[in-house]
């Protein structure tokens, strides 16, 4: 049995288990298992996110207020979306308005999907008096360089005939006149922070179209068309603003939404999990804790490069608190996960047993997460 701190509370801070559990559901099920094995344990739930999908839910679980609104989805159809608001800060998740999961019938629209709805979410936050916008990027259907977002905030984009451009990245090739209109005044005095770990530039082999376009249904020809359109967009923005940010790390995030936010909203980039942990008050939550538990759907090499569990592990160990991981699948060997700072790691697929049906880590995720909680209690919490 591993013996660690013998007093204090337990912080349960997982990310989502994609395809099976939200971060909040995972936290609740792990906590239930801990309490079953170690009744009376002071368990505190703090589901987390790294800036992508689930960021708003994590903020809500940490005490932010949910504000719902209707916005344009990635293809223009109205969708219900939410932002999280607290003390003048709004958490805006691009996937809530412009996400791949919002495409009608799941039909991808690589050339025509836009980010207008994301701009509408920011506008709603500003209407509420928020002066700090935390913009979570990831999971979007569009590759429009943030042009739609800019239009929603007061910019106009016209072709040579004076017609406002249609949504989507492909339309940017026809851009003739860019006018920021009321956008600068709208964002005056507002701090915009991008929560992202993506370091891709806007253009080229590592750019928004080449790297992420295929995930959004772009063919090789579509990728070339989108990259050329984004180059034209970047030229127009640089000419107007006097600053060329196309090579800035993170400009290629979320189909170039990163570029639009950097160049037109004056945003700065901060590592997603680092930003979210600060926003959620992780430093306060971990103070005096005896154990932190984190996790996600798959603990693998990618986890070590800025994903939520690695960020939680770094923050917990920095505070002198042991941290354990629960994952649907465990693709790191023991030296790998121990090297990342984890004192223990449990995989749901292994807890299901060798005779379990295929996909048990997904179909029985809640039950198995509780079992993981029991095992953690036995390892760390029992006297």
TrEMBL record:
<dbReference type="InterPro" id="IPR018197">
    <property type="entry name" value="Glycerate_kinase_RE-like"/>
</dbReference>
<dbReference type="InterPro" id="IPR036129">
    <property type="entry name" value="Glycerate_kinase_sf"/>
</dbReference>
<dbReference type="Pfam" id="PF02595">
    <property type="entry name" value="Gly_kinase"/>
</dbReference>
<dbReference type="GO" id="GO:0016301">
    <property type="term" value="F:kinase activity"/>
</dbReference>
<keyword id="KW-0808">Transferase</keyword>
<keyword id="KW-0418">Kinase</keyword>
<comment type="similarity">
    <text>Belongs to the glycerate kinase type-1 family.</text>
</comment>
<protein>
    <submittedName>
        <fullName>Glycerate kinase</fullName>
    </submittedName>
</protein>
<dbReference type="InterPro" id="IPR004381">
    <property type="entry name" value="Glycerate_kinase"/>
</dbReference>
<dbReference type="InterPro" id="IPR018193">
    <property type="entry name" value="Glyc_kinase_flavodox-like_fold"/>
</dbReference>
